[in-house]
Design brief:
Length: about 110
Amino acid sequence: MLREVDFKSAVNAHLGITRQTASTEDIDTRSNALRNLLEAEGVSELYLAHLADAYVTLVQSGVHNVSGKLGEMTGRTPGAILQHLKKARKASLLTATPGRAGGQLTNSARELLA
């Protein structure tokens, strides 16, 4: 019986966090932005902030294989995306959630995106 309780949803509801859904249009727009940034600036802080934002949105949307989806969006391999996300965490743009997918944008990332 206790296994049937969705604690994550209950906590999110209590905190006022709603599950975002990434629409196809939103994903296409983000894909173009990520590719353009990557081509123009390389793996810059601004690119990493946008990548982290897309990552958080996809995780919250329940997308499986987020690094694969981000790889499709950027034209890079999932392994390269994992390295970019690692750089984003090291640059304090994305928090870590040990042992599982997820994390949150930091204030530094939000400032770059503003």
